[in-house]
Amino acid sequence: MEETDGFKRPERAGHQSTAENLERVCKSILINTRNELYLKMRFLDVALSSFVYVMNPDICQIGTDGFGMHYQPKTLGGWYRTDRIMVNRLYLHTVLHCIFRHIIRRNGREKRLWDLSCNIAVESVIDSLNCRVVKRAESWVRQDIYRKLEKEMQVFTAEKIYTALTKWELPEKRLMMLSEEFNVDDHRLWPEDDEENQKNEIENQWKNQAEQIETSLETFSKESASDSGDILKQVRVENKERCDYRRFLRKFSILKEEIRIDEDSFDFGFYSYGLRLYGNMPLIEPQEWKEEQKIEEFVIVIDTSMSCSGELVKRFLEETYSVLSENNSFFRKVNIHIIQCDETVKEDRKITCGEELKEYMEDLTLKGEGGTDFRPAFSYVEELIKKGELGSLKGLIYFTDGQGIYPVRKPLFQTAFVFVKEDYEDVNVPAWAMKLVLDEEEQALGYRL
Prior knowledge:
It contains 16 helices and twelve strands. The model is unreliable at 1-11, 254-259 and 441-449 (pLDDT under 50). The protein is globular. The protein folds into two domains: 18-239, no CATH class; 246-258 and 293-448, 3-Layer(aba) Sandwich (Rossmann fold), CATH 3.40.50.410. It has 449 residues and is α/β, with parallel strands linked by helices. Strands 4, 5, 6, 7, 8, 9, 10, 11 and 12 form a nine-stranded mixed beta sheet that branches. Strands 1-3-2 form a three-stranded mixed beta sheet. It has helices at 2-40, 45-48, 73-82, 84-99, 111-128, 140-150, 158-168, 172-182, 196-220, 222-225, 231-239, 245-249, 268-278, 310-324, 354-362, 375-387, and strands at residues 52-55, 62-64, 68-71, 242-244, 254-259, 289-303, 330-341, 345-351, 395-400, 414-419, 434-438, 446-448. Helix content is 47%, strand content 16%. Strand 7 (330-341) and strand 8 form a beta hairpin.
């Protein structure tokens, strides 16, 4: 046994030494690649150095989980010998996925199509760079897909590309061709939609990186910005803050007592002590009312001019209904006014419960299709307040394309203009109003501040 053990130990040591050498060589390749990219793109300095390098024979090429860059040693070494530019592009491709937070934003989308959309978005950015270390001729397949996407959007975000690919209903053969053309890295390490803790950690880390890159390109690295291709445009889009619709509506909430057992203020110690002491008589009972911060009244104004999409408005109302159905967002009885207005107020529908909102959505008909003037809706709401029909109004949400006449005077209630215009560009929203942009490609609850 001793001789057998003595024979095996050197073999294991030799095997371990080979693995260590292989890992050391691969890390040197990645470090050299990182340095080469850094010399040409200094605005990515921190992002390029944000990974730990992990040898992982189970993946196909290179992949990331948001923290480590996992690599397949044989593939990495082979590419480095034969195609240095490919390794540079692969490294940069993985970094851009993290900067744009593709790895955490699938949100229920079909995985294969989402992976393809993310790859197209990233590769289009790399192809736009005026940088020798990643430059290579574009294939006909790439030129064709870029040309078609340019007709649909101004900035190639993964969400917009996904919507376009879904709408086109491409045949399987065409999808396979695109996947082969744009498939670069391995996405199997990306977190699943339900892994919220990991997604939050990734978001916190890479959001800061993206903001620093945007600042650097806009200020300190203007010379580099001319060679940065479409990175700045994409980063600007991704850095627009996303806010959950439920959290946003909290801005319009009020504090009010509601008939409901307050378990938070109930002391179970005294309750159980009374039961032990007197048999079936507790010393304390739970309170039958509780103070809640919820929404009781608010107004939705729908711009019914010709430029607003009825389908998009319906999607928002559906999301509002789902929020209304949750006990922790609204009081049981609400007072919601849905007003349709173009140049004049066309309709005011009062909603007191979720069932009424559902009926309204099923029979939704937009009335108007004239010009856009925001002032009549505000005047109408102020009249409702004077009449006592709105007693505790905290806010108004106005869906519009933004092209209209704004009130000069600030109203007594909070106001948010939500724009439904694709490829939104800034408009002169008054300083007293909140401004949100709803991307048609994204889910209804995902807004950009």
